[in-house]
Design goal:
The chain has 12 helices and 9 strands. It has 346 residues and is an alpha/beta fold. The chain has one domain (20-203, 269-344): Rossmann fold (3-Layer(aba) Sandwich). The chain binds S-adenosylmethionine (SAM).
Length: 346
């Protein structure tokens, strides 16, 4: 065995499930701490979130602009407000929030008087959330019970909750079918499951999803974005994408399989997009879907990263946001994010 091959097999062996889980928890803990610098992140407090530039360059990532008032004018922002109002007004007191992260949704539920069991893998992230919430002077009528646990193995209280919620986390959970089944069992009869998820991708993304992704990558390369995402770096990344696509095409023509990436490198979530479209399939198996909406065909990242003076950023974000919405509504592209309003099957 060559040294390279030996190193690679060692790397892959090191990446056991437990190791990846630990990296996942650390990743979100670090992310929560970084986001907290300079403002109140929406991931922590939706009602009090401030407008600021979220600096992530120490992590090797591009900065982005959090602008709650502007987001509220985009179709996705409006849908998020509707989502929050729905879960706040759902009858019954007991709620379970899955992949709660730094706790913004659990906090909104508690503000409306719910008693929330908020579950997440990352102790560090939950600690950041608790520390922030301890600084709030308002009277919060509900309460949050924080639970640090891996949702792949979490045992639910059966028939305990009036509603289950989740925002942007289930695509990190491998055993998504088991989790959705558990979510259904945890609900009282006719209880509601309300979730927003990245349902894009999967093993075989649809043609519309792939077109959206390429469009987003090209557009993202062209539009000005903050440091460290220089044009030089972005064009290099785009070139790498072209190379990968070309290689995959050649291999497929020669009937060779394209080896999926198993190594986890750099600062990233090891379980990013572990499940995607499978989330929807699993929800459909255990729940009756009342409403389903899709957003973000080709501008999901871009809308937060456009590096222009605010007076120009506002119209650009609005035009791109609404154009994206119309293109997804017309069925020309597949939205990356899906909001689902579902009820426990009778
Ligand atoms: C994209 S963040 C979303 C967090 C939060 N819902 C929000 O909207 O800000 C994904 C979250 O899923 C959590 N997570 C990932 N894998 C998990 C697992 N196996 N069990 C529980 N939580 C997990 C991460 O710790 C992280 O907080």
């Amino acid at each position: 065995m060559t040294n390279d091959a030996l190193n690679q097999s060692r790397d892959e062996a090191d990446q056991t499930y437990e190791w990846k889980l630990q990296k996942e928890a650390e990743f979100w803990g670090t992310m929560a701490k970084e986001r907290r610098k300079g403002g109140i992140p929406m991931t922590m407090d939706f009602s009090r979130a401030t407008r600021y530039r979220v600096r992530r360059s120490v992590l090797g990532w591009g900065d982005y602009f959090q602008d709650p008032a502007l987001e509220a004018l985009t179709p996705f922002g409006r849908a998020r407000i509707k989502f929050v109002n729905t879960v706040r007004n759902e009858p019954g007191k007991r709620a379970l929030d899955l992949c709660c992260g730094a706790g913004w949704l659990a906090l909104e539920l508690a503000r409306s008087g719910k008693h929330v069991d908020a579950v997440d893998l990352s102790l560090e992230e939950i600690t950041v959330a608790k520390e922030y919430q301890a600084t709030l002077e308002e009277e919060i009528p509900g309460r949050i019970n924080w639970i640090v646990s891996d949702l792949n193995t979490y045992v639910v209280d059966e028939g305990a909750y009036d509603q289950v919620t989740s925002w942007d986390g289930l695509h990190h959970v491998q055993k998504i079918d088991a989790l959705c089944s558990a979510a259904a069992r945890s609900l009282k009869p006719h209880g509601r499951f309300t979730l927003s998820e990245r349902t894009w991708g999967g093993e075989k993304p649809s043609k519309r999803a792939r077109i959206g992704r390429y469009l987003e990558e090209h557009l993202w390369t062209i539009v000005p974005t903050p440091s460290p995402m220089t044009y030089r770096r972005k064009f290099k990344q785009l070139f790498e994408t072209w190379k990968t696509v070309f290689r995959a095409k050649v291999l497929r023509k020669k009937n060779l399989s394209v080896r999926s990436q198993t190594r986890v490198e750099g600062f990233c979530s090891p379980f990013e997009d572990t499940s995607g479209p499978e989330v929807l399939a699993a929800v459909r198996r255990y729940f009756d879907i009342e409403k389903i909406e899709s957003y973000g065909g080709f501008t999901e990242e871009i809308l937060r990263s456009i590096y222009l003076p605010r007076v120009l950023r506002i119209p650009t974000v609005l035009v791109l946001g609404w154009l994206d919405y119309l293109v997804v509504r017309a069925g020309l592209l597949e939205g990356k994010i899906t909001m689902v309003y579902a009820r426990k099957r009778a």
